[in-house]
Design goal:
Length: 352
């Protein structure tokens, strides 16, 4: 199977996904195998929502819409343009996926197959319904994918390389267990925002998307703010207030109540608005319904601090602070070439 076939297959998958939007599910004409797969995928979305209380329909569809845009033919071609796939000898690459947000492991899945390798997937039990169905659709679109995609719930066996995503604790296990295999091992990371006090209401409103999308469970979610001394949080709270319906979700509300009680009993200083707490804390990783913050004196010192802690940071949201910064509201809409942990997955796959 040549590269063009693989690109076309994923582009057709993107067209299939374009039927499932926040405006509703609208079956289109002239989409390959639609009679066989359209209703089935609606059912898988429903199952994913029922299986995992964090996977609301809104968040599932948000993920699907982003993947539909990313899998546009020209976009995939622009992504792979700088790589040379000519000398690939197909290997079996195992992927151990996280389950914190819907389809969180899809980029690794896409990268392995677009590179010409075979994939062995071990999914999280929290996100097990969507990807196998989409893999089956790919096999119908491009029959040469048959035999190249395998899912397992058991122990990983007979593979040549591995991409594993987990916590700092599981990463230690992965590093030991896979020490004799080429690997990408991903650990805990969090995203931050750097404010200067001059942000517009529109920017702060956009920032709330980076904080609350997927309930803050993703590594690309902003979990910490860096603010100048004497920063007034009134504008921040005003900017994020339109996300207040999030407290109506039982799982989020339970976490909010629990963490608030812990902070109050521990007599921690914190500010809150009924659905979000902000607390001064040195950690990058904050609990659900909480954002940590830290004051900075000057940009130069902050840049040095962040450089020294870059292995803990996934994204930096700011305006004019960092050359790799992400604009407000864009952390959960990465491009295909925005690699997790800044590790080029395709380059890794071309070397194994």
């Amino acid at each position: 199977m040549i590269l063009e076939q693989r690109i076309n297959a994923f582009a057709k998958l993107g067209i299939f996904l374009s039927q499932f939007t926040s405006d509703g599910f609208h079956k289109k004409e002239n989409i390959n195998h639609n009679d066989l797969f359209f209703d089935g995928f609606k059912h898988q979305i429903k199952l994913a929502e029922e299986t995992n209380g964090w996977f609301t329909k809104e968040n599932i569809i948000f993920s699907i819409e982003n993947w539909s845009k990313s899998l546009e033919n020209n976009n995939i071609n622009n992504w792979v343009l700088k790589y040379n796939f000519n000398d690939i000898k197909a290997k079996k690459v195992a992927i151990i996926m996280a389950g914190n947000i819907p389809l969180v492991g899809f980029h690794d899945f896409l990268s392995v197959l677009i590179s010409g390798h075979n994939v062995l997937v071990k999914q999280s039990s929290n996100d097990k319904h969507l990807l196998p169905f989409l893999a089956k659709y790919l096999e119908y679109i491009e029959p040469e994918f048959k035999g190249k995609i395998e899912f397992t719930e058991g122990q990983l066996e007979h593979f040549d390389a591995v991409i594993a995503t987990g916590s700092d604790n599981t990463a230690r296990y992965f590093e030991y267990y896979f020490k004799n295999k080429p690997s990408i091992i991903r650990k805990n990371r969090n995203s931050i925002a750097i404010l200067n006090g001059d942000e517009s209401e529109e920017q702060l409103k956009a920032l709330s998307e980076d904080i609350f999308r997927y309930y803050g469970l993703g590594c690309r979610n902003v979990s910490k703010l860096f603010v100048p001394k004497n920063y007034n949080f009134e504008a921040f709270f005003k900017g994020v207030f339109h996300w207040n319906p999030i407290i109506n979700g039982a799982k989020y509300a339970n976490n909010y109540d629990y963490n608030k009680a812990v902070y109050l009993m521990s007599e921690f200083d914190m500010l809150e608005n009924g659905f979000l707490m902000i607390k001064e804390d040195l950690s990058f990783s904050s609990p659900i319904a909480t954002v940590f913050y830290e004051f900075y004196d000057n940009k130069s010192t902050l840049k040095t601090y962040l450089e020294n802690n870059k292995n803990k940071i996934q994204c930096i949201v700011s305006k004019g602070f960092d050359r790799n910064e992400i604009d407000f509201g864009q952390t959960q809409q990465p491009q295909l070439w925005d690699y997790a942990d800044n590790v080029d997955t395709i380059a890794f796959l071309l070397k194994i």
